[in-house]
Amino acid sequence: MEDASGKAVHDEAITLTASAGALGELRTRGDGTLVATYTPDPGDKRGEVEVTASTPTLNSSAHLVLEPRMVQLSFGPWLGAHTNFGELSGPSGGVDVDVRVRTPLLGELAVLRLAAATMGAHTEASTGVGPPVDLRATVVPLSALLLFRQDAGGWAVWAGGGGTFAPRYTQIRFGDELVSSSVGALLGPTVAAGVSRRVPAGEVVLTAQGSWLPAPREDVGYSGNLGGLLAGLGYRLVY
Amino acid sequence: MRWAAIGARRGAWALVALAVALLLGACRRTELPAPEIEQVDPPFAYNGDDVLVSILGRNFYPGVAIDAWRGKADVDTSWSAWLVGPEGDIELERPLVGVGMRDDTELAATVAQGMPVGLYDVVIEAPSGAQSELLRSFTVTDTRADRLEAAATDGIVHPVTEPATVRLQVVDALGEKVAVPFPVSVTASLEDGTPAPVTGGTLEGAEKDGDGVTGSLVDGEGTVLVRSPRPGLVTLEATPVDTGSTAAQAPVARATLVLQFDPGDDLGVAIRLPVPADPTPEVEAGTQLVVEAELVDQYGNPSDATLNVALITDCSFAFPAFARLSGPTLVTVVPRVATSEDCPFDRVVVGYGPPGASALYTVRPGPVARFDVGLVGAVVQAGDQGVFTVIPEDQYGNAAPYAGDLDFELSTGAPFAPLCGPGPFPSWLQCQGELTVAATDQLLEVHGQVSQTDVLGLSDPFDVVADDVAMALDIEVAAGEDVVAGEPFGVEVTTRDAWGNAIDPAVLAADPIVLDDDATEVDCVEDGTTLLGAQAFACVLFTARTGAHLSATRTAAGLGVGSAAFDVVNGPLADVAVAGPASVVAGATAAFSRTATDAFGTAYEVQDDPVVDVSDSSRTLSIATATLGPAGTVTVTGAFTAAGPTTVEIRQAGILLGTSDPVQVLAGATSALALRPASPYAWVGEPLDVTVLAVDAYGNRTGYNGSATLSSSTTSAADAAVALVSGAGTVAYTWPEASFDEVLDAVAGPYAGTLALPVSARCAGPTADVQFGGFPDALGCVDAAGDVVLTADLSGSTAGAQPIVGYAVSELGGVTVTGATSALDLPLHGTGHHALRALVQDAASCGAEVSAEGWTGPDDGRAVGPVPLSTTAVMPNVFSTVTVDVTGVTDCARDPAALAAIEVRSTGGEPAAEPSGSGLLVTLDNGGDASFDVVMDGGLSAGDVEVHATTPDGAAAGLLVVPVVQDNVFPTVVAQDPAGLTAGTVSQVQLTFSEPLRSWTVAPAFAVTGPTAVTVTPTLLPGETEVLLDLSPAVDASAGLYTVTVPNTVRDAAGNRLDGTWAGSPADYVGAFGAGGAVPAGATCVATVPTGLVLRPDGDPGPGAEADVLEVSVSAAAAPAFWFVEVFDAADALVWQTRAASAGAAATLQWAARDRRGMVVPNGSYRVVVTPDDGLGNRGSGCEVALTVDNPLGDP
Q: Which of A58, A155, B286, B421 is at a distance of 20 to 30 A from B1071, taking alpha carbons?
């Protein structure tokens, strides 16, 4: 607040009111200006609010327009299955985090997804000399994807691609003896697509993700693609 | 939400980056464990044939690749192996052929024919490329192992007690040793087929295998050891070990060897008694027993050997008999211990030497030689039966029967006649009788007679305690010591049983001893138990007297006893009342009476030390000690020599016991004149104020009235007359010429006096410089009397055209020391700061002066000298915290004042230091340095804040001035004119403010309201502290009450708004004038705290003068609306003002010794005026309190 000569006035009592919503405590900054936090009433409808600062002798108002919120951040788990369309398949699950990306070219159409999932593989084979070999692997694909999302009413669809970095834990047994275990990683391209339906506080999603994760050459291990298709049904919280 | 999304994006990328980093760090290929070779079987090969060997070990795994699409496994078993051995100077690899996996622990390979002879490493390689090797593990020979051979190394006949060493070799068909490692199994058996012991000898890895041993020959040979438990033939057989390997081996024939063992020569001792063994013979303890001893072999045949042996008996093993046996030998042994249940039979045995023992016999005790006496039970109570066992014993301690009479004698001398009967064991006696004397470590002596020979026995010490029934009391007071009032003395009370024994007080704890005295004042605490069993007490009596006595009672026991009479001496002198005249003439004697009491208020009649020290506060009293009379009183006569008030003080051992009322010592008759110059030296042509005092014989100023004449004794200066009024007069004396040895004479009638001081001329000449030990400031350590002599070094002074011929130095107001040399000794007295002056004068009488600071203090490590203070704060404001550094404080010897304390205070804010009640203390470190903060917390106006550092004795001081900016003090209305009841026409009202105002804030909002409307035009007068309100039209004050309002939009120069109610916050001022209100009842100041009206506002409030706040209690006949408190300094300037709302006709008001700027006021005298106000400008008569602010100063 300033006086007639433009100098800050520090010792006048000021009352702050709003036509809707709530106002926080009025605090004085180091430069002498005053600041308070305004919180709109809950809801997603468009509206207008007037905030008024009053002293015993002065009034001053500001006009605010409230816009409904759009999805900026969503995250949640999903459960489903995986298969490499060969010997390796089984149950799977994961967590996706979607963050809206605003770019001059695409506007708010793009979404950055960070995804984590888990899947397993187990094979036992005879060697002809000594005990059979038993090979087990657990793979955790960590994916970063750029998706294009389109919302229409309560429905939304998306598709896009990216890459996967998949930590892998491997155990080798000959007979019943565990002879080796190791931690490694797989790398490969990934594509994803899905559809969602808004529900209270979030959305239900049907998601699918395909990846190509070639196995490296080792003393004992798999050869060929350890990736394949991950698909499942999940729920996400939306902000 | 936008910020949340951004945060989530950043957090997600950070987590991904972290996970990738961790995984990359942990990643590695899936590898199989490396193979390990443990053994090659056989470990050798003949190079004339292809030899199949097994390589045994662990982790022999194939490589496997499983197709993730089809699930099929691709197995890789491509192992390879080779030998590594020397070929000249290099190591060559020689591959094995036909390497294949049998399973994960065995590989099969073939050593091809023609492999060079040598010792090789074996190396294998897995399909993955991992290798393993076993160093020097395979031998290739050019001889084929054909058979084993065995031979005894030391003949085939051996003593049965010694092992036979057999050497084994593996040889080829021609008998040549095949130098390879070769495992063998060796067994041995007696003629009847029972196994004979075999041990491994030099076989590598030898271990027991059934009845034999297995191990490996090293380089084709090794030894084993064979024993036989008895004479006869032993057959040894060595066979190759079947390793179970699947590798083919050439057959190797076993070896057989027959050994012969002859009988041994183990010895024993045959011992034969001198009497037949049946029936069992008996001997008497202590008699000699002669036996025959002889060496024999293990079969009982006599031996020709000669051997030393020691014989003992089973029951008396501690007494050996030594003998050298060579054939049958007589040996004498003495059985000392009679056979008993513990050792029912005795025999002679070999204690040292080959084994042997005699037939059994028994031993009976010898004749009684003494009595073993012991008390049954640990302790006996007086009056109870003491039960003793008496054991008759022979000379070796064997219990022996006794049938004679016994006599008893106690070590205490008490009679004891017990009855005796059989004891619990054979030959033992048990005697019991009454014990009556309590004592510890008593002994019982028993006398008997055997064959007309006296036999004696003495018991172990035993204790008899007193009975637990109290029958009498004894009391003893302060044995061997005086009883002094207030001091503990010993009392011993003994409780005795029916036999006069002292009963342990702990036994009677349920019936405690109660002590009392004739004055029922004794205070006792238990102090343990004496060696004689008395209960000790430490008691205190408080009233000195003669004929005192104590009593002790045990109520439950109904016992009581009184002590003998004794005297109670006075306690230490605690108070001496001194009475004397209110005034006395200096030099005249006066009598003072003294009445002494001890710490308990008892007249000092039963005295311990009647001599007291006498002194007075002026230290001039002519007597030093006095001796109190028998009644604790004394009258002494003495004289004082220093005029002024004094008090007589009585001390003992340095402790102040009493002080008289003030005594005014009056000056005596005038006897001389004393001259006091304003400066220790004078300048030609410059008047010097010289004060002439009429003094008595002791230097006290008298009340002489008259005229004195001053005259120069060495110059032509004109005489000057000075009028002495009440013994003093001052005249400005001027010298026309210089004289370094000037003496000024003063004469007033019969009285005269002189003053020596140098007189110099101010002309171009020398320059003065003075140093003290090389320093510009003088520091000195005072002695016990407070004196110190400092050497002033004026050698740094420089001469002008003429040489310097005279030097002088003086403490300002003290005696001037002059001399012709540059080093002058200047005596100083007292602890603290001294202002010093020095003068040099050249041959042309031109003088030059210089000043110095002197500091003196005791030599005990405390700070002495200047206290340097500094700060790095730049433009601190009224809310800043300023750090003040103290650097380089020294003691009187110029050493760092390590760990010394200094007091600090500031005139603005508060120092963050340790409160002591008498000042805020800062402790220096070992280097004499320290730092502390001065915390400003607002309530101040811009100005200089003084930070003072001092010591209580003034021996060290320092001052730092810190300018602070900003203004946090609200302006107030100091005065309004007119105010209160006013009559007539008023056209102007003048308001006075506490500080200058901003002109543009003096707005038309000023208002005067009353019976008639009025327009107000305010004008800020020059100086900007006064505002003149022009009223239009002028008002008739008699018409009613007019209110003057000053809005709080009025601001001072710093922008602070008006505090119109003195509440410390912005508020309008409302005053009044005209016909309204009434003058309130006058106020009376009824009390102050501190009562001494001296304040020391140093930030550390304490009692008395250490108070930081003055409290004034006021009262009035009726309650006013307000109390105005105004403080004026010695120049009657308003220092501070406030207004307090009244809650009644009495109030307590405070002043914190600060001015309107919030700063602590300077030292000096102040008036605090309290005035009642009716709230409409009418003030009643006030009261005032005069006080002194006396803070320690850092700038003396």
A: A58
